[in-house]
Amino acid sequence: MVMRTLLCLCAIALWTGPRSAAATRQAVLSAQAPHTQSVTCPGYVAGNVSQTGDGFTAELTLAGPPCALYGRDIKRLELGVRFDTKNRLHVHIKDSDGQQFQIPHGVIALDPGYGVRNASSSLWFDYFHDDSSGFGFRVSRGDQVIFDTVGHPLIFEDQYIEVTSNLPANANIYGMGESPDFFRRNPANTIKTLWNRGSPDLLQQNVYGSHSIYMELRDGLFHGAYLHNSHGMDIVLANSTIQYRVLGGTADLYFFGGPSALDVIDQYTELVGRPSRIPYWALGFHNCRYGYKSVYEVNSVIAKYSEANIPLEVAWTDIDYMDRTRDFTFDPVNFPLAEMQKQLAYLHERGQKMVLITDPAILYNSSYEVYARGHAKDVFIKNTDGSEFIGQVWPGYTVFPDWFAHNTSSWWSGELKRYFDQLPIDGMWIDMNEAASFCTGSCGTGKSAGSVPPYPWTLDPQPPHRIINSSDTLLVPPYAIHNREVELSDLTIETTAKHANGASEYHVHNLYGHMESRATHDFLVNYRPNQRPFILSRSTFAGSGAYVSHWTGDNSATWQDLHISIASVFDFGIFGIPMVGADICGFFGNTTEELCARWIEVGAFYPFSRVHSALASTPQELYRWETVAEAGRRALRVRYALLPYFYTSYQRSVENGWPVARPLLFEFPRIPAVADNDRQLLVGDSILVSPVLAEGATSVVALFPAGLWYDWYDYSVIKGVNGNVTLSAPLEHVNVHVRGGKIVPTQEPAMTTADSRKGDFEFIVAVDEHGAAAGELYVDDGETFDTASRWIQLGYAGKALRIRQRSGKFKIIQPLSKLVLLGVTGISKVVVNGSGINASLKAVNGSTIVTDLDIDLNVETLIAFS
Ligand SMILES: *[C@@H]1O[C@H](CO)[C@@H](O)[C@H](O)[C@H]1NC(C)=O
Ligand SMILES: *[C@@H]1O[C@H](CO)[C@@H](O)[C@H](O)[C@H]1NC(C)=O
Ligand SMILES: *[C@@H]1O[C@H](CO)[C@@H](O)[C@H](O)[C@H]1NC(C)=O
Ligand SMILES: *[C@@H]1O[C@H](CO)[C@@H](O)[C@H](O)[C@H]1NC(C)=O
Ligand SMILES: *[C@@H]1O[C@H](CO)[C@@H](O)[C@H](O)[C@H]1NC(C)=O
Ligand SMILES: *[C@@H]1O[C@H](CO)[C@@H](O)[C@H](O)[C@H]1NC(C)=O
Ligand SMILES: *[C@@H]1O[C@H](CO)[C@@H](O)[C@H](O)[C@H]1NC(C)=O
Ligand SMILES: *[C@@H]1O[C@H](CO)[C@@H](O)[C@H](O)[C@H]1NC(C)=O
Ligand SMILES: *[C@@H]1O[C@H](CO)[C@@H](O)[C@H](O)[C@H]1NC(C)=O
Ligand SMILES: *[C@@H]1O[C@H](CO)[C@@H](O)[C@H](O)[C@H]1NC(C)=O
Ligand SMILES: *[C@@H]1O[C@H](CO)[C@@H](O)[C@H](O)[C@H]1NC(C)=O
Q1: 690 lies in the same domain as 790
Q2: Which stretches make up the Glycosyl hydrolase family 31 C-terminal domain (predicted)?
Q3: Domain end point (choices 476, 509, 534)
Q4: Mutate to test the pocket of ligand 3, among 191, 239, 243 (most ligand atoms within 8 A of CB)
């Protein structure tokens, strides 16, 4: 959702030209961040090396007089090098005194690996001494140096750590965010600032989440690096280097040897946590808007989707449903609980679902029981004087749960239980958890709770920016990261605010959404012990994929944002949160019929597929225009046919971290032309979507890697030569191709995922130049944790399809009744396990459709064609 008029105006102001605050911010940045080379820092000297079975430790001592670049140089450091696994190397440089803040293990339980001898590692570590810059190290994989700090002094101060590594010229770098940007980061000029911020999606700015992992592609091979640190930071690509500028903590680095993109993500998610299992229904199509006036209006939206024959799986409602925008309440006039209960029952009867929004900010008013109970249990973030920190969010002045406090998760669970007991919704949407506030500092302290006018209120023009105590280095750290606000504390919890573990918000700000995600997930798995939760979170951190899914926040209805959405979905694939999508048709601004039609043609292939718009935007439910409805029906028909394939791909995420939506680059790393391709997307490794991303276009130029690519709709084939092909793309049509050499499981699409699951299985066998193909199918009950499961391996060669059982005992009820043999002709006979059967055969455009099969998918079977 959800930036109201006030922030919406501010977004537009930033867009169209500088306003005074933006100008002030620039001044502040240039005044405070003179990153000059005129101060030379001495670096460190390594000594006292001590071998361990799986690495070594050493001491680092400051090599000269402190440079005090942005704080106090720490004189003695400890270097720990550990070969965690065969393909993961951990390099941790920390202060010997252990005073610097580190992410508690309880917040993110990193996988320790098993520890290997250096000889068994694919990565190698060397360190060096350079007279001008001191200690430096190199991480290599074979002959390739993949991280190289030699020649760049390590700077390690209490509020500033700088680590710089050399990159090749014009390096291919991916990841680092969250920040809307083109997928391949500009190696000459990129600053990714990690400071969670509840702002609209403006190009290249810091937004809701923090993920410091990056991947690099070099000579067809990938490797990755992750800095485990919750502080604000800039990661800078310039001058053939990558430079981390971090506001505290330690230099806690992990390196991943790859060598494929999927390997890097596998190694990263093994460390920070694998993506959570999701219910099958989450893969259906979702509708939302901010600004539904009543439960009756939402009822009518649900009915209109059905009348328009567009599959609606989940009906969402934004903050509109709440009583005066207070959490866990229902507007007694427009969204009365009894009517919400009826809507939920209606949806459930029809196999549909409901998801509602919740914010972490709690109205500060002792007659609001949610607040009163939390206050009694002492669960809210504090000012330095021990009073509650009071910001301002939708309901007025608000307090913020402190996820570090002992009783917060039990209080949160208690509130959620009361809410779910009244209305047992299917999933949760947790928003505004950066945490967003509409003012700066504890603006409600000392004010009467009633002095904020009731929602919707206006606050425009904005008051002049406050004057802060610039010698308080928690408020104004000596190095100013490129946060796009005047202060770090703007529009969020003040950096000096205190958490129950003693940490200031300064150190843990970026963890807020992650910790709320985990607490919410914990509640749901306790409340419904064997049901997989579905939670959508706006703010995330490394490892959040283990608890939540994500949407890319408040984008705009522009053609550029349509394009960028693909890159953002790829980014979250790297971040280990594969269930991700952007607001289809755009959130802010008024979409157009053409843009919305083109957007659903992309959005139908986002792993998480939801249309959503802002309060002031014209309505954009898919049925509003006939072309959009038709584009939606067609594209969603492809998605729903592919549900078994999406689900199998998602299970690959759960087991190996592999993203569902992938750039061509991940599958074809040796084709230079795909290094910056974020205009096409692969679903899994087999389905290529080549959408139109430009206004007025009725054709699209798309790259086809060498091999055969079969048109989804008419089976015509493109012989790819690693070059561009121009495809016809009328408004209601999105180009989808099946990759030769792959087998894709499908089911007949229906209006809900539950009904789609009831259909017979059909396999698309798309042969390569050698007449061969392979694929897999994963099936389970789609709901529970302790479900039986089944992995099936599919192989086609020599005109025979072999169905092999790899693992699991889940009983598949539906038979395989149809095969589409793409690129296979000249068939007149079908033999199953040696016995001829009377299947129907039909030749279409160089392919053969085989129907009237009745194959049990729970057993091994050989189907031969001649
Ligand atoms: C090595 O350890 C000794 C004893 O702990 C200490 O005095 C010395 O400064 C250390 N040397 C270096 C280079 O860290
Ligand atoms: C590798 O391990 C051996 C044995 O522990 C040790 O002697 C050697 O210095 C190590 N080499 C590196 C580069 O860590
Ligand atoms: C890149 O090099 C130029 C010229 O030496 C320098 O002015 C600039 O600050 C450098 N940029 C970064 C990010 O280090
Ligand atoms: C927190 O909960 C514990 C028991 O779970 C209780 O003993 C303690 O008093 C509570 N703390 C506060 C501040 O309410
Ligand atoms: C708190 O809420 C109550 C009930 O809605 C309201 O009457 C009262 O004015 C509020 N208190 C303050 C201080 O705003
Ligand atoms: C400003 O901050 C410094 C450092 O925290 C503190 O010592 C000083 O008292 C503050 N000044 C005021 C006016 O609050
Ligand atoms: C969107 O359209 C509405 C009318 O439907 C109009 O009031 C509003 O100003 C438009 N918004 C923008 C950003 O153009
Ligand atoms: C066969 O493919 C061509 C395009 O190559 C297409 O025009 C035609 O409609 C297709 N035929 C069928 C039956 O789908
Ligand atoms: C393919 O087309 C894209 C977009 O028009 C262009 O940027 C790219 O250079 C082309 N690639 C090749 C290999 O021709
Ligand atoms: C196939 O059809 C023929 C003619 O209808 C019938 O005689 C034969 O038994 C059928 N074979 C099988 C395996 O069903
Ligand atoms: C095919 O043969 C295998 C044994 O090779 C058997 O387990 C399986 O049940 C048979 N499948 C069918 C569909 O008869």
Answers
A1: no
A2: 657-744
A3: 534
A4: 239
